[in-house]
Amino acid sequence: MEKPISSEEIYQDILSRIISLELEPGSKISENMISDKYGVSRSVVRNAFARLMQDCFLTVYPQRGTYINYIDLDYIRTALLIRTSIEKEMLYRFMKKSDKSNIVAKMKENILKQEKFYSANEYLEEFRKLDEEFHEFIIVSVENKNILNLISQHLLHISRWRNLYIKKLGCTVSHLIDEHKLIVECIESGDLEKALDCMSRHIETVSSEMNIDSEFKHYFSSSY
């Protein structure tokens, strides 16, 4: 007998589909539809929906239903600002460490895994995890994981925007990989100022590309 699908598994699957834009911003989603798809009770789906609402990806409108939230560019800009400030501080502390060789080796190994996505025109889930892991190596080496917990929700929303930037606007992930390589080069050379500048430019890559093509205006909050 197969093990029933858990609320956690449903949450992760729907979250992945939202971030990948398979479930488009503004589209309707229902407990009945998801419970039928996975063959589970509505209470199991309701728990997954509750988490997605906490993550600000779903909103329930009385008498209308449940909808995927639109992308809010003001939120994305703020999230990028917060992430840039935190990661530059973490990188500054990391650069002051006497022995960085073990972490640098892990970052290089991570980049090698990223290479197979060099020509990808989608911000695929596997690459997203490698991208986040690359940054986590520095953060965890100088701080505990509380920092990651604080910015985890921001990272998910940034990932959805980044997926639009890559998947829908005809870009590739190659420039992200090249920026990762440059960050490692700066760390190895001991150039603190350049390393901080590279990290800032890397995180803010997509913030400079926030001109919305008319084809995708329906993905965004009405104010845009």
Structural commentary:
The protein is mostly helical and 224 residues long. It has 2 domains: 7-68, Orthogonal Bundle (Arc Repressor Mutant, subunit A); 73-204, Four Helix Bundle (Hemerythrin (Met), subunit A). Helix content is 62%, strand content 4%. α2 packs across α3 (42-54) and α6 (125-142) runs antiparallel to α7. The protein starts with 6 loop residues before the first helix and ends in a 21-residue tail after the last helix. One of its GO terms (molecular function) is DNA binding. Residues 4-71 form the HTH gntR-type domain. Keywords: DNA-binding, Transcription, Transcription regulation. This is DNA-binding transcriptional regulator, GntR family.
User: What is the overall number of helices?
Assistant: 9
Order of helices and strands: HEHHEEHHHHHH
DSSP strand content: under 5%
Instruction: Please give the alpha-carbon distance between the first and last residues.
Output: 50 Å
Shape descriptor reads: elongated
Fourth CATH level, the homologous superfamily of the largest domain:
GntR ligand-binding domain-like
Poorly predicted runs are none
* Sheet of most strands: 3 strands, antiparallel
Number of domains: 2
CATH architecture of the largest domain: Up-down Bundle
For the record, what CATH class of the largest domain applies?
Answer: Mainly Alpha
Task: Report the radius of gyration as a whole number of Å.
Answer: 19 Å
Class derived from helix and strand content: mainly alpha
How many extended strands?
Answer: 3
Protein name: DNA-binding transcriptional regulator, GntR family
GO molecular function: DNA binding; DNA-binding transcription factor activity
Pfam family, one: GntR
Organism: Peptostreptococcus russellii
